[in-house]
Amino acid sequence: MTMHTDMLVIGGGMAGFCAALELAEAGREVLLLEKMGYTGGSSAMSGGCLALAGTGLQEKNGIEDSNELLTKDLREVGQQEGDENLIKAYVDNQLETYNWLCAHGVEFSPIVATLSGQSVPRAHALDPADTIRLLEARCKATGKVTVMLSARAERFAYNELTALVEAVRVQTPSGTQTVAVSGKVILASGGFCQDKEMVRRFAPHYAEAVFVGGAGNVGDGLRMAWKLGADLRDMAHIKGTYGKHPVDMTNDHSCLAAYKGAVIVNQEGKRYVDESLSYKLLGDAVMKQSDHTSYQVFDQPIFDSGDDRVKILDFNRRLEEGTLLKADTLQELAQMIDIPYEVLKSTLDTYNGYVDAGHDPDFDRKALVHHHGELVRVETGPFYAYPSTAVVFGTYCGLRIDAQMHVLDVFGDRIGGLLAAGEVVGGFHGGAYMTGTSLGKAAIFGRIAAKTALAESPPQPGKQAARLVETAGASV
C-alpha cells in the first residue's frame, strides 16, 4: 500500500507541529507521522521555557535584552563550539517566532526568569503539553494537515537518479505502508535518550545517569538519516541536567535553587563547582562525585525567592512533595543529610565570607546564574537541602544541518529532499546548553525547515501527490 503526500513531517512534537502549521498556512497538504499513539513527545514533558530576546513580555517587565546579547550568551554557554550559522538562524528568527506563537494563542507566563546560561531574564515559560495540543488543533483546523498516530517511520527511499529522498517506509497497526512524497521530508523525530545502548556508545560517562524523555525517543530518525550518510554533530557533548532528585520518580523536572543563591555541596559537605554554570556543566560535575549525588543547600530568603510559575524554581511544590528537606537549624539539616555539622558550617562560613569580599577564590563564582544576579549569603533559618543528581532529558546532538535545515552528509553535501529540526539535529548548542533553547530551537528550526521546503518545492497543481491518496502494489 502506498500513500502519496505533498509534504511529510515525521514527529509530533514542537518542531513537527510548528513545521506542519507553517506549511499548512501556505496552503500545502501535509502528512504528519507520529510513532506513538499520542502526540507531544519530549516537548510535552519539557520544562516549558523558550529562550527569547527583545520580546514585548520582556519590555513589560523592564528587561533590556538584544540579539547581540543573546548571541554572546549562546556562544559562551556553548563554549565557542556551536555552529555560528545555526546560532545566527536561531537569533534572527526567534522574535518573529515568539510573535507567531502568540498570534496562534500560545500563552506565556507573565514572569520572565533568569535561568541557565542567561545574562538577563529571558526564559519565557509556557505549558508545553497545552502548547502542543493547541498547535495540533491549529494544524487540523486548516484542513491541510493529516496526523497519523501509531505510524513509525522505518526507512527512507533515496533515488540515486534524482538524488532525492522520495518515500518513507512506515509501520502502522494495519501493516507496512509506503509514503511517497512530492515535496520535502522534514525529520522532527526527537533524540535518543531512551536508547541506553546508543547513549552508552556516545556518552559512557552518563551510563549510570537517570534518563527521562519521550518513550519514542530511541534514535530511529537519526539512524534513518545516518544510513543515507548523514553527518553527526556534538555527539561528545551529551550531558545530563543537574538538579534531578535521585530517587523521586514522580517528578521529572529538575530543581535549581543554585540559580537563586544556593550552595552545592557533595556528600562530604564540600563545594566542588561554580554554581552559576550551565546546568549541563553542573551535570558533568556531579557525575564525578560520590554516588553521583550532591545537595543544594539554602536558607529561607532563597526559598522565598522561588517562583511556582517556573518549574525548576518551584520550591514550594518540592517541599509539599517531601523531596525538599527542611530543618530549623543548620545542625539539624546536617544530621538529615548525614554530613558532619562542623564541615557543613565551615563550608557555608567560608562561602559567606567570599560573598562579603566579593570574590570566590575557590571556584570563581561571580553571579547567581551565568552573568546575572548578585551573590547572597546563606545564613537565615530555616535551612533547606535538595538532593540532586544529573538526568538526561535530551541528547542535544545529532544530524549535521545547515542554516536552512538541510541535512548534510559526511562530505558536507545536502541529502536531497531531507530537512530536519528539533532534538534530532546537532551543532547548535555546542559544549553546553542555555535554558529554553531546546524547545526554542524546536519551534524556530521547525518553521525554518518549513520555509525552506516551501521555497524549494513550489506547488504542482494537478499532481496526484497533492493530496493523500492510496494505491496498491508499491514498496520501498
The N- to C-terminal Cα distance equals: 10 Å
Beta fraction = 15-25%
Strand order of the largest sheet: 7-3-2-11-21-20
Return the average pLDDT rounded to an integer: 93
Please identify the structural class as seen in this structure: alpha/beta
Residues in helix, %: 25-40%
Description:
This protein is an alpha/beta fold. The protein has 14 helices and 22 strands. β2 (7-10), α1 and β3 (30-33) form a beta-alpha-beta unit. The relative contact order is 0.21. Helix content is 31%, strand content 20%. The termini are close together. α5 (84-103) crosses α14 (437-456) and α12 crosses α13 (341-357). The strands form five sheets. The protein has a six-stranded mixed beta sheet with strand order 7-3-2-11-21-20. Strands 12, 14, 15, 16, 17 and 18 form a six-stranded mixed beta sheet that branches. Mean pLDDT is 93; it is low at 463-476. The chain has helices at residues 14-25, 41-45, 56-60, 67-77, 84-103, 128-141, 196-202, 220-227, 279-286, 300-304, 315-321, 330-336, 341-357, 437-456, and strands spanning 2-5, 7-10, 30-33, 49-51, 112-113, 123-125, 145-148, 152-159, 164-172, 175-181, 185-187, 210-211, 232-233, 241-244, 263-266, 294-299, 325-327, 383-392, 398-399, 406-408, 414-420, 469-471.
Keywords:
six-stranded mixed sheet, disordered C terminus, alpha/beta, elongated, 476 residues
In short:
The protein has 14 helices and 22 strands. The chain has 476 residues and is an alpha/beta fold. Strand 8 and strand 9 form a beta hairpin.
